[in-house]
Amino acid sequence: MASFTINTRKHGEVTFQARDEGGYVRVTGAKWDHRQICDGGSFGGSTVTADEKTLEAKARRWWKSYLAAEREFAL
Predict the structure, then answer these.
(1) CA–CA separation, 56 vs 50, rounded Å?
(2) Contacting residues for 20 by C-beta, under 8 A, at least 6 apart
(3) CB of 46 closer than 8 Å to CB of 37
(4) How far apart are CA 30 and CA 10, in angstroms?
(5) Phi-psi label, residue 33: left if phi above 0, alpha if psi -120 to 50, beta otherwise
(6) Mean pLDDT across 65-70
(7) Whether pLDDT at 75 is above 70
(8) CA–CA separation, 53 vs 66, rounded Å?
(9) Is 50 helix (H, G, I), strand (E, B) or coil?
């Protein structure tokens, strides 16, 4: 299982996981417990998939989109 963690001041530790050989990406943190992530920083829509080589880049991209949506919509 591939794993990548982002440490944040506001949300604490946010960990992204996907199967080494590829599969859906899930996020675990203060607000979520193994939620599947989707394009655009959301949890609904086109599902984000990654393998061990692409997990970090896709997790960072999703996190950036999530934070933008959080600011815009006051989530």
Answers:
(1) 9
(2) 1, 2, 51, 52
(3) no
(4) 10
(5) beta
(6) 95
(7) no
(8) 22
(9) strand
pLDDT at 41 over 70: yes
Give the tokens for residue 6.
Answer: 């982002």
Two tokens, residue 55: 């997990």
At residue 74 the predicted structure's pLDDT band, cuts being 50, 70 and 90, is confident
Alpha helices in 1-75 (DSSP H): 55-73
In angstroms, the CA 33 to CA 10 distance is: 17
Q: What does the DSSP 8-state code read for residue 4?
A: E
Contacts of 68 (CB under 8 A, 6+ apart): 41
